[in-house]
Specification:
With about 625 residues, the protein is an alpha+beta fold. The chain has 4 domains: about 130 residues, Chitinase A, domain 3 (Roll); about 100 residues, Chitinase A, domain 3 (Roll), CATH 3.10.50.40; about 120 residues, Chitinase A, domain 3 (Roll), CATH 3.10.50.40; about 220 residues, Serine Threonine Protein Phosphatase 5, Tetratricopeptide repeat (Alpha Horseshoe), CATH 1.25.40. The protein is built from 14 helices and 20 strands. The strands form 3 sheets. Strands 7, 8, 9, 10, 11, 12 and 13 form a 7-stranded antiparallel β-sheet that branches. The chain is elongated.
């Protein structure tokens, strides 16, 4: 292979099989095998090209004038023009070469040798056995029309012609719903169904409410688009929309009025958001950000037989909209999740299960426990979070304090993930803060350390002791004698079963600050109690293991490896240190990790202390 051919093969995009076959067919065309004579000139200057659908009548004759086949009534045909997509449809080579030379309305005679029509070796179009495919033939072509189309299915069973362009980029898909004006006609333009008055046709994708081909074609459209969708028999499936038993092709004229976005927020069909009025902008770029100030009207309805309205901002809030910041837990989780996926001006219907509605939120008096609800939400507008760029140090600390206080409130309400997100938001903004003097530097360091410790407290409440330890280390890296960080890390170590590390932190507290001795002593007492409990449990677990003679296998006790209370904090745990009164709460009751993870480390330590480290337990 030549160098230039190698380079072309490497850098030129690979062609599909059909393109390669077409090129091979053209190379094998004998000279003079296709000749054209114009019978009637066409109009304009534009000629069809690849990607265009061409409609034409064709009458095929032998050289002595005998008609072999025709699409025209007067010559024994059905009167239906042929319809092909240049570059896509399977066709004889003479059509692929001759039709692109014609103008709209033109009538031409194409004289073809067998190699250019059905006598071509491996011709993709099959004809009857008695067809004179090895003879030279005349093809009289009248080019009726041509236009750009989108091929929806590779077999040309569904083809779309755009009449008017739509808006935006979003196209409907399952489980979206649409509203559209639709007229169905036969290939002869006889009207079958006409839905163009009253309310637009409303149907859901994936529910077989319209023929399959029509749904596939609409799935390529955008809001406001008008198109002709040509659907052939295999895609004319049964549906409530129309009876399609006796048609080989139906032409659907469609105007897509609205795309109703339907989102399964949880992926299990329980929390569903359905957009009933379009908003302003493009989804999702123009949706609210985290910590945006949201302004909404909403109406809440119980999904009972009476569909009781339990709240309406336009009535119960004196007509004023509700304003709240996202991420602060001020509205039910399902409502906030839905608003975060809305555009300004959008109206949505949200059906919500109890655990994302009011079972984990302050429940209105007229909403029973376990109630499924529906909210009708209108997002009036939203404001993006305040940009700290250009603020002086005092203003930055003021904004940081507000967000931290919100985090503290969320922590006290038990919303630890939301609280952690607030603290981490401030820490991210702090990456761009540059204190100008020692006093500002001291304020900055203390505030940052308190945020890290609050994050560590959240991790403990969420049961992730390792993350809590890592976060405490960020404080101790810059302030090794930080008593609060030592205490919190010691509690995390103890919860994780790392008793030696916990003891080291509690003893270090006394060394660096004598005033912390009562808290440290209380923590050490609790630590000893936990060690004793774990040791007793280990002895019970390995009871009888060494009562056998050498070479015998002892049966390990069948009791489980302790119950879940062994490593949890007890009622006698020392109160959390109060040296920083704005901390997010105490370190009590850190949620346990997985059972195996909780006991493996401490079990290994106890086994070592009992001399089991040198033994193999079978």
């Amino acid at each position: 292979m030549a160098v230039d051919e190698e380079a072309e093969e490497k850098y030129v995009p690979k062609k599909n099989k059909q393109q390669k076959d077409e090129e091979k067919r053209r190379k094998n065309m004998p000279p003079g095998s296709l000749m054209k004579a114009i019978v009637r000139p066409g109009g304009g200057t534009v000629k069809p090209k690849d990607g265009d659908q061409v409609l034409f009548h064709c009458t095929t004759r032998t050289l002595d004038g005998v008609i072999v086949e025709s699409t025209r009534y007067e010559h024994g045909g059905k009167g239906k023009p042929m319809k092909l997509v240049l570059g896509k449809s399977k066709m004889i080579l003479g059509f692929a070469e001759g039709i692109p030379t014609m103008l709209k309305g033109e009538v031409a005679m194409l004289k073809m040798k067998p190699e250019l029509h059905y006598g071509e070796p491996d011709c993709p179009v099959v004809v009857a056995v008695d067809f004179p495919k090895h003879d030279e033939l005349h093809f009289e072509i009248e080019l009726i029309d041509f236009f750009k189309v989108k091929v929806v299915t590779e077999d040309m069973g569904v083809v779309k012609q755009v009449l008017n362009e739509g808006q935006g980029w979003e196209s409907p898909r399952e489980p979206y719903e649409v509203r559209a004006w639709i007229t169905a006609r036969t290939a002869n333009r006889d009207v079958l169904v006409e839905h163009v008055q009253g309310e637009p046709l409303h149907f859901a994708f994936g529910k077989k409410e319209v023929p399959k081909g029509l749904e596939m074609g609409i799935g390529t459209m955008t809001r406001g688009e008008k198109a002709m969708i040509y659907v052939n028999e295999p895609y004319l499936t049964e549906s409530p929309f129309m009876d399609v038993d006796s048609f080989q092709e139906v032409q659907f004229e469609v105007e897509l009025v609205q795309i109703i976005q339907v989102r399964d927020m949880l992926g299990d069909g329980r929390l569903i958001k359905r957009r009933v009025k379009d908003g302003r902008g493009e989804f999702p770029m123009d949706c609210p950000l985290h910590d945006s100030l949201l302004c909404i009207h909403y109406k809440g309805v119980l999904l009972d037989e009476e569909r009781t309205v339990f709240y309406d901002t336009r009535i119960d809030n004196d007509g004023h909209p509700l304003e709240f910041c996202s991420g602060e837990g001020l509205v039910p989780e399902g409502l906030e999740m839905s608003v975060r996926l809305m555009l300004p001006g959008e109206v949505a219907l949200v059906t919500c299960p109890p655990d994302y509605a009011y079972d984990k939120f302050k429940r209105p008096e007229n909403v029973p426990e376990g109630a499924h609800v529906q909210w009708e939400i209108e997002l009036l507008d939203f404001k993006k979070p305040k940009d700290w760029t250009g603020l002086n140090f005092s203003s930055i600390m003021e904004e940081a304090e507000k967000i931290k206080n919100t985090g503290n409130r969320l922590f006290k309400e038990g919303k630890f993930e939301l609280a952690k997100a607030k603290y981490e938001q401030v820490l991210r903004e702090f990456n761009h803060v540059n204190p100008q003097d020692d006093e500002e530097g001291k304020i900055y360091l203390n505030f940052r350390n308190s945020l890290h410790l609050n994050v560590a407290a959240c991790y403990q409440k969420l049961g992730d002791c390792r993350k809590s330890i890592e976060t405490c280390n960020k404080v101790l890296d810059s302030s090794p004698a930080h008593v609060k960080a030592l205490y919190r890390r010691g509690i995390a170590y103890m919860s994780a079963g790392d008793f030696d590390e916990a003891r080291s932190d509690f003893e270090m507290m006394i060394k660096v600050d004598k005033s912390s001795e009562p808290d440290a002593t209380s923590a050490l007492s609790k630590l000893r109690q936990k060690e004793k409990e774990v040791e007793n449990m280990a002895k019970k677990q390995f009871k009888g293991l060494f009562d056998k003679k050498p070479g015998e296998i002892a049966e390990v006790g069948s009791d489980p490896i302790g119950d879940d209370s062994i490593l949890e904090t007890t009622n006698g745990e020392a109160a959390d240190m109060q040296s920083e009164t704005d901390e997010a709460g105490s370190d009590r009751e850190a949620a346990p990790e997985g059972l195996f993870a909780r006991y493996w480390y401490v079990g290994r330590r106890i086994a070592t202390s009992l001399g089991l480290g040198r033994c193999s337990i079978l």
